[in-house]
Amino acid sequence: MSESLVEVTFALDDPSLDQYERQEFAKKLLKQLREQGDAETVERSDDLNIEIGSKGGLDKLVGVLTAEVKFGNLVKFFGFVGEKFAEKPIKVHVKVGDREVTIEGTGEKAIAQAKEVAAELQALLSGDVANG
Question: Where are the domains of the chain?
Fold first, then answer.
């Protein structure tokens, strides 16, 4: 069985920053995450709430990134992301299989919670596979 991927969506959640500042932070982090190589993919997140009458194609959410990470690389990935967010407010959405959890908090604390949640979701998914 191949190692499952964990989908992690995250953004700087600081209301004192404008869209440009959030986008610049995400742009810099996107480049660093791609160079670091722990994620299978890292992209700017699509806005799935397109308004009626808007032009074709998906818009991107400002300052939001989505990564797909092998479970075995999660600790290193979250460690890197935690360092970059440090004490900054962050919103992290973790999805494993059809189960998902959103965590809001401050940098390293929120990342530590996200690591725990990913491990719990992975264990549940493994249990579901074993039992189902």
Answer: 5-50+57-131
pTM for this predicted structure? 0.81
* CATH (residue range 5-50+57-131): 3.30.70
Instruction: Count CB atoms within 10 A of the CB of residue 46.
Output: 14
> Which residues fall within 8 angstroms of residue 91, CB to CB, at 6 or more apart?
10, 11, 13, 102, 103, 104, 110
From first to last of the 132 residues of the chain, give the pLDDT tens digit.
357 889 999 998 888 999 999 999 999 999 999 999 999 999 998 765 655 555 555 567 888 999 999 988 988 998 899 888 888 899 999 998 888 889 999 888 888 888 888 888 878 777 754 444
User: 25-34 as b/e, with b when 16 or more CB fall inside 10 Å?
Assistant: bbeebeeebe
